[in-house]
């Protein structure tokens, strides 16, 4: 997914890297270039605060116990998953005319799984950045 000045690559497992201006020379996050390990420098995590159980809304880096649905279309990638009464949908896309990457994470709690009261859950994100003192190979 890219526009003339910015872009990102995301795999079916949700591992991604992002660049500005040039995909090889100006990486913002690392690119592993290994289809077997499918490592990346960007990740989201969800956590059930009652049990302490955590997982990713994408199949990697921390897979949940139930299946995922990955969709890739023209200009977007989407990942759906449900774990422990929490359903999630992560949609990733790039602005058409700006150096902006959108990662829209929607979560919902199953009423049956938590007896009608809000289930305490948190999300967090991780981005390993590249720079002068940290190569992105």
The level of helicity is under 10%
Radius of gyration: 16 Å
The residue ranges in which pLDDT falls below 50 over 5 or more consecutive positions are none
What is the N-to-C order of secondary-structure elements (H for helix, E for strand)? EEEEEEEEEE
Envelope shape: globular
Overall pLDDT level: 89
Cα(first) to Cα(last) distance is 20 Å
Q: What can you see in these coordinates?
A:
The mean pLDDT is 89. By secondary structure, this protein is mainly beta. It has strands at residues 2-3, 6-10, 16-20, 42-48, 54-55, 68-73, 76-83, 86-94, 101-109, 121-127. The strands form three sheets. It has a four-stranded antiparallel beta sheet with strand order 6-7-8-9, with no helix packed on it. It has a three-stranded antiparallel beta sheet with strand order 1-2-3, with no helix packed on it. A three-stranded antiparallel beta sheet has the order 5-4-10, with no helix packed on it.
At a glance:
The protein has 137 residues and is mainly beta. The protein has strands at 2-3, 6-10, 16-20, 42-48, 54-55, 68-73, 76-83, 86-94, 101-109, 121-127. The model has no long low-confidence stretch (mean pLDDT 89).
Q: Which descriptors apply to this entry?
A:
single chain; 137 residues; mainly beta; 4-stranded antiparallel sheet; 3-stranded antiparallel sheet; 10 strands; 0% helix; globular
Topology:
Layout: E1 2-3, E2 6-10, E3 16-20, E4 42-48, E5 54-55, E6 68-73, E7 76-83, E8 86-94, E9 101-109, E10 121-127
Antiparallel strand pairs: 1-2, 2-3, 4-5, 4-10, 6-7, 7-8, 8-9
């Amino acid at each position: 997914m890219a526009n003339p000045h910015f872009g990102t690559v995301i795999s079916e497992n949700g591992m991604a890297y992002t660049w500005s201006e040039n995909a090889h020379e100006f990486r913002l996050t690392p690119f592993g270039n290994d289809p077997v390990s499918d490592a990346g420098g960007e990740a989201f995590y969800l956590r059930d605060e009652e049990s302490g159980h955590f997982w990713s809304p994408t199949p990697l880096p921390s897979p949940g116990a139930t299946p995922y649905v990955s969709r890739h279309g023209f200009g977007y990638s989407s990942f759906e998953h449900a774990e422990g009464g929490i359903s999630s949908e992560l949609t990733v896309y790039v602005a058409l005319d700006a150096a902006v990457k959108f990662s829209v994470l929607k979560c919902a709690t199953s009423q049956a799984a938590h007896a009608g009261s809000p289930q305490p859950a948190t999300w967090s994100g991780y981005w390993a950045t590249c720079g002068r003192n940290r190569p992105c190979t």
